[in-house]
Write a structure and sequence with these properties.
By secondary structure, this protein is an alpha/beta fold. The chain has nine helices and seven strands; from the N terminus they run βαββαβαβαβαααβαα. It has one domain: Rossmann fold (3-Layer(aba) Sandwich). The radius of gyration is 18 Å and the shape is globular. Bound molecules: NADP nicotinamide-adenine-dinucleotide phosphate.
Amino acid sequence: MSAAPLSSRYRTAFVTGASTGLGRAFAEMLLREGVEVWGTARDTARLAPRARFHAVALELGDGAAAERVFLAAEREAGGFDLVVNNAGFGAFGGFAATDFSLWQRQMEIMLLHTARLSHAALRGLLARRRGALVNISSLAAEFPLPYQAAYNVVKSGLSALNESLMFETEGTGVIVIDFRPGDYRTDFEGAVTRPERLPDAAQERVWAAFHRLMEHGPAPAHAAEALRRALARGRSGTVRTGRFFQAVVGPFLARFGSLGLRRRLIAKYFDL
Ligand SMILES: NC(=O)c1ccc[n+]([C@@H]2O[C@H](COP(=O)([O-])OP(=O)(O)OC[C@H]3O[C@@H](n4cnc5c(N)ncnc54)[C@H](OP(=O)(O)O)[C@@H]3O)[C@@H](O)[C@H]2O)c1
């Protein structure tokens, strides 16, 4: 693995959701590595001014507008060597009991519009025959979270997109990283949309388990270090990161069990 700073390979980067949590940690890691970063938030007042950091206002709710914002930043940067699609949020509740508009919004923002930004980003990367596309998926792509149906759909879909693009970019000079974090201590839990009062004991127990897991998760800098290592390796692939049990033991054991057993273990893990 190269000990050279990431800036020797990636001169410019675009990171969505850089105001808090994982996105901010990714942006800070890249800045420390000498990369020039265009980082987004819906309100740029949430982005601290720093040297070599360009604040970009981006709302993923409108896919066409988000693509225009991305392309304008790409022109300003003279092309991106690295694009990290990280912005996202959680939504908790029974699938049938929750108004479908919430699930639709989550799938549009986090899957459809994120795929659209991946499409725009890949065109630029392929034209220059170098660089990396990183879509932040989740271990939820392989271990679905109870009462977060649309989130599971989004992350499975994003991982499927990443896997597909790994085939298509083979030998092009461009790499694709499917980045799957476990539970990290970020603002994510506070930003989850959920009913004010949970309707039953099962949802209360699952929410309490989710809260515990997030609260005791590693700090975002741990995920940023995993991303730094993956980018330094310079190869397409899947990165699982988080506490050892979630990122290593769980996926290892899951290889040997049936899907039914996996479901039962997830239910137990979430106190369901
Ligand atoms: N934390 C975890 O345990 C964990 C685990 C697996 C995967 N992930 C994934 O990691 C990513 C980051 O999560 P996080 O934990 O860092 O959460 P976070 O601290 O809540 O940060 C979310 C970021 O997304 C941005 N964002 C939210 N909605 C947006 C929208 N409609 N348009 C544009 N930007 C929007 C927010 O920006 P503003 O609100 O400032 O606009 C913020 O910068 C997400 O994709 C999440 O699914 C997180």
